[in-house]
């Protein structure tokens, strides 16, 4: 306390003193001394403090005002536009190698990051912020403290998370909290991080602390988002619940029936666009906690806002988010094109100017980067940050429910051009967890640095964030069912099937129909066709839903093409997945191999009888 009294001015010191937690005091004193900021601001839950942070983002030039009130734009460095997987490491004692996890010796990592952070805030202001993960005052709640010299990061967190200063005060010494220490490092004239060669994101799993330096992109810096996610996965696996890369939404069934679904797709594969679809209600778009209560799986959104991809958002397909983005509510646009105070982005469905300012600085149509690549108007991973309270279709009751909502169905999906059908249902929990979750593969996207379009193993869409050995994670999933009286149904979707010429087989809004079908299946309202890989919809049910939901004719030809069981591709996939689990992952539950083997057998038998490509009509006739 004495150290803190020396380091903080009176007003800020009093704010900290009101929290009775010596561990917090120690952590703050140590880091404030180490980071050497010129000034420290402590954020309470007051409107005034939140305003202060918003104003500082403008004052320091990290954000600029746009024409519409409450809209701002923020830019990240041209080479800091996505998650940096290479430099994101889990610090573990002895640097133990864990397959698929990027680990580093804890002592070495802490030493390196401390050196990079020594005095890094000289001449800058440090913001100390308190938030919670999950709904307040509930079993889901996890308090967290964020230290950052980026007012943009702090501002984003105020939009995305529930305030936690009062919670820290309430919990006092009992608070077991996560810690995040971030510095954007030295900035260039555009106020973007300069020393990208020294960009590091180190996750200390022992101390439940994450350090991030020389970067600004939200996926690398917003502590409570993908950084905390590594810590919550570890906690969930230890305690026997699920912390998932999933949206949470309400699908509206017949006669006002409400059914909640979660959905795990890798970054840039449709979580946000599914959760925001017009017919239904959004609860969350990225991170969900699922816990068993009295034998029922209940889900809660970890966040209260959306950090969503803006490319492709257009008035036809995304009327709700389009409206939100054009209303005067608080929004941060990042890495978009700005002309005369208005934001523009790729594929927005309206004409966009041929010059302005974007993530590359002054921009004109045809401008090339150092590598000779033409720079599009906005970055593919350009985003918007907005609170869910501004969505006309938010389910606020579900968002704030201290016990979460009952999960009726869980969906897995990815970018797969040729193997999985658009939608199918697992035979049971085990079948879904193994063949849909643990076997998920998806093409890489612009949400991470590196090559795009490469098919990659991505179990449960969570591999980038995995913080425990994969075998343990899957065992926890399989065992979760034993805590339930009634397990959620498991489904898999694929929005990204293509024909021989590379054209999409589905329209972006077809997912509205798949959702309605899944809702009916959760309640046993429609029959389905049994295939070797699970249950698929009957043509008649989809044709009716296409008419009712989208007012569209759905042809038998389209159905047949989309739902054909592609035996060679499916078998090849089982080979790939089995090989990975046999050769690369340790301590895999034996059940996983059994379930894969059963699926292979079913596929081989079906091929014997019907050939390589099996029409759903043939299977229905059986
Ligand atoms: N072809 C196709 N693209 C889609 C579909 N749904 C979403 N997308 C695109 O996928 C990208 C990422 O979607 P988003 O929902 O933000 O993904 P998230 O990162 O998982 O939340 C956007 O560019 C969307 O336009 C779909 O059904 N079909
Ligand atoms: C913030 C992210 O989430 P997503 O792309 O899943 O929306 C990210 O992956 O960097
Ligand atoms: Mn998203």
From TrEMBL:
<keyword id="KW-0418">Kinase</keyword>
<dbReference type="InterPro" id="IPR035078">
    <property type="entry name" value="PEP_carboxykinase_GTP_N"/>
</dbReference>
<dbReference type="GO" id="GO:0006094">
    <property type="term" value="P:gluconeogenesis"/>
</dbReference>
<dbReference type="InterPro" id="IPR008209">
    <property type="entry name" value="PEP_carboxykinase_GTP"/>
</dbReference>
<dbReference type="InterPro" id="IPR008210">
    <property type="entry name" value="PEP_carboxykinase_N"/>
</dbReference>
<dbReference type="GO" id="GO:0005829">
    <property type="term" value="C:cytosol"/>
</dbReference>
<protein>
    <recommendedName>
        <fullName>Phosphoenolpyruvate carboxykinase [GTP]</fullName>
        <ecNumber>4.1.1.32</ecNumber>
    </recommendedName>
</protein>
<keyword id="KW-0456">Lyase</keyword>
<dbReference type="GO" id="GO:0019543">
    <property type="term" value="P:propionate catabolic process"/>
</dbReference>
<dbReference type="GO" id="GO:0004613">
    <property type="term" value="F:phosphoenolpyruvate carboxykinase (GTP) activity"/>
</dbReference>
<keyword id="KW-0963">Cytoplasm</keyword>
<keyword id="KW-0312">Gluconeogenesis</keyword>
<keyword id="KW-0210">Decarboxylase</keyword>
<dbReference type="GO" id="GO:0005525">
    <property type="term" value="F:GTP binding"/>
</dbReference>
<dbReference type="InterPro" id="IPR013035">
    <property type="entry name" value="PEP_carboxykinase_C"/>
</dbReference>
<dbReference type="Pfam" id="PF00821">
    <property type="entry name" value="PEPCK_GTP"/>
</dbReference>
<keyword id="KW-0670">Pyruvate</keyword>
<feature type="active site">
    <location>
        <position position="269"/>
    </location>
</feature>
<feature type="binding site">
    <location>
        <begin position="268"/>
        <end position="273"/>
    </location>
    <ligand>
        <name>GTP</name>
    </ligand>
</feature>
<keyword id="KW-0464">Manganese</keyword>
<feature type="binding site">
    <location>
        <position position="267"/>
    </location>
    <ligand>
        <name>substrate</name>
    </ligand>
</feature>
<comment type="pathway">
    <text>Carbohydrate biosynthesis; gluconeogenesis.</text>
</comment>
<dbReference type="InterPro" id="IPR018091">
    <property type="entry name" value="PEP_carboxykin_GTP_CS"/>
</dbReference>
<comment type="function">
    <text>Catalyzes the conversion of oxaloacetate (OAA) to phosphoenolpyruvate (PEP), the rate-limiting step in the metabolic pathway that produces glucose from lactate and other precursors derived from the citric acid cycle.</text>
</comment>
<feature type="binding site">
    <location>
        <position position="226"/>
    </location>
    <ligand>
        <name>Mn(2+)</name>
    </ligand>
</feature>
<feature type="binding site">
    <location>
        <position position="415"/>
    </location>
    <ligand>
        <name>GTP</name>
    </ligand>
</feature>
<feature type="domain" description="Phosphoenolpyruvate carboxykinase C-terminal P-loop">
    <location>
        <begin position="241"/>
        <end position="602"/>
    </location>
</feature>
<feature type="binding site">
    <location>
        <position position="286"/>
    </location>
    <ligand>
        <name>Mn(2+)</name>
    </ligand>
</feature>
<dbReference type="GO" id="GO:0030145">
    <property type="term" value="F:manganese ion binding"/>
</dbReference>
<comment type="similarity">
    <text>Belongs to the phosphoenolpyruvate carboxykinase [GTP] family.</text>
</comment>
<dbReference type="GO" id="GO:0033993">
    <property type="term" value="P:response to lipid"/>
</dbReference>
<dbReference type="GO" id="GO:0016301">
    <property type="term" value="F:kinase activity"/>
</dbReference>
<feature type="binding site">
    <location>
        <position position="383"/>
    </location>
    <ligand>
        <name>GTP</name>
    </ligand>
</feature>
<dbReference type="GO" id="GO:0046327">
    <property type="term" value="P:glycerol biosynthetic process from pyruvate"/>
</dbReference>
<feature type="binding site">
    <location>
        <begin position="217"/>
        <end position="219"/>
    </location>
    <ligand>
        <name>substrate</name>
    </ligand>
</feature>
<dbReference type="GO" id="GO:0042594">
    <property type="term" value="P:response to starvation"/>
</dbReference>
<feature type="binding site">
    <location>
        <position position="83"/>
    </location>
    <ligand>
        <name>substrate</name>
    </ligand>
</feature>
<feature type="domain" description="Phosphoenolpyruvate carboxykinase GTP-utilising N-terminal">
    <location>
        <begin position="26"/>
        <end position="236"/>
    </location>
</feature>
<dbReference type="GO" id="GO:0006107">
    <property type="term" value="P:oxaloacetate metabolic process"/>
</dbReference>
<feature type="binding site">
    <location>
        <position position="245"/>
    </location>
    <ligand>
        <name>Mn(2+)</name>
    </ligand>
</feature>
<dbReference type="InterPro" id="IPR035077">
    <property type="entry name" value="PEP_carboxykinase_GTP_C"/>
</dbReference>
<keyword id="KW-0547">Nucleotide-binding</keyword>
């Amino acid at each position: 306390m004495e150290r803190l009294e020396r380091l903080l001015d009176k007003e800020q010191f009093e704010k900290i003193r009101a929290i009775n937690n010596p561990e917090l005091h120690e952590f703050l004193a140590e880091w404030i001394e180490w980071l050497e900021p010129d000034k420290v601001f402590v954020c309470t839950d007051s409107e005034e403090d939140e305003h202060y942070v918003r104003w500082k983002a403008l004052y320091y030039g990290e954000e600029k005002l746009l024409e519409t009130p409450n809209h701002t734009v923020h830019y990240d460095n041209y080479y800091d536009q996505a998650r940096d997987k290479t430099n994101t490491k889990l610090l573990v004692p002895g640097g133990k190698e864990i397959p698929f996890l990027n680990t580093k010796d804890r002592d070495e990592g802490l030493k390196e990051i401390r050196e990079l952070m020594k005095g890094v805030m000289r001449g800058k202001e440090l913001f100390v912020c308190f938030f919670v993960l999950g709904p307040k005052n509930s079993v889901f709640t996890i308090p967290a403290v964020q230290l950052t010299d980026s007012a943009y990061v702090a501002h984003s967190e105020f939009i995305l998370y529930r305030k936690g200063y009062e919670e820290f005060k309430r919990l006092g010494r009992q608070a077991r909290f996560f810690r995040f220490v971030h510095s954007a490092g030295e900035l260039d004239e555009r106020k973007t991080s300069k020393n990208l060669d020294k960009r590091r994101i180190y996750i200390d799993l022992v101390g439940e602390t994450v350090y991030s330096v020389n970067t600004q992109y939200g996926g690398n810096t917003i502590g409570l988002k993908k950084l905390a996610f590594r810590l919550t996965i570890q906690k969930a696996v230890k305690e026997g619940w699920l912390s998932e890369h999933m949206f949470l939404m309400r699908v509206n069934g017949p006669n006002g029936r409400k059914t909640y679904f979660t959905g795990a797709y890798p970054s840039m594969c449709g979580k946000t666009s599914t959760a925001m679809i017009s017919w239904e209600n959004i609860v969350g778009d990225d991170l969900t906690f699922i816990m068993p209560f009295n034998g029922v799986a209940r889900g809660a959104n970890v966040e209260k806002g959306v950090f969503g991809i803006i490319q492709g958002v257009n008035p036809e397909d995304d009327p709700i988010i389009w409206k939100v983005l054009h209303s005067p509510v608080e929004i941060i646009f990042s890495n978009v094109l700005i002309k005369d105070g208005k934001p523009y982005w790729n594929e927005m469905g309206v004409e966009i100017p041929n010059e302005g300012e974007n993530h590359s600085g002054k921009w004109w149509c045809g401008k090339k980067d150092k590598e000779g690549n033409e720079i599009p108007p906005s970055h593919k991973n350009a985003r918007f940050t907005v609170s869910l309270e501004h969505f006309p279709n938010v389910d606020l009751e579900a968002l704030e429910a201290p016990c979460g909502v009952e999960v009726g169905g869980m969906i897995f999906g990815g970018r797969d051009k040729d193997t999985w059908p658009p939608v199918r249902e697992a035979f049971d929990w085990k079948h879904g967890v193994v063949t849909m979750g643990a076997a998920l593969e998806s093409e890489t996207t612009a949400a991470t640095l590196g090559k795009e379009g490469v098919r990659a193993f991505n179990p449960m869409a969570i591999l980038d964030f995995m913080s425990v050995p994969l075998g343990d994670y899957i065992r926890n999933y399989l065992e979760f069912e034993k805590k339930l009286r009634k397990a959620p149904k498991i489904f898999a979707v694929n929005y990204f099937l293509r024909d021989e010429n590379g054209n999409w087989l589905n329209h972006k809004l077809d997912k509205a129909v798949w959702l309605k079908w899944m809702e009916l299946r959760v309640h046993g309202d429609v029959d389905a066709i049994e295939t070797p890989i699970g249950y698929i919809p009957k043509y008649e049910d989809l044709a009716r839903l296409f008419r009712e939901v989208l007012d569209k004719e759905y042809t038998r030809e389209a159905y047949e093409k989309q739902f054909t069981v592609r035996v060679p591709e499916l078998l090849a996939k089982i080979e790939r997945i089995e090989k990975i689990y046999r050769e690369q992952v340790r301590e895999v539950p034996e059940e996983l191999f059994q379930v894969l083997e059963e699926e292979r057998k079913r596929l081989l038998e079906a091929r014997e009888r019907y050939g390589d490509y099996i029409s759903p009509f043939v299977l229905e006739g059986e």
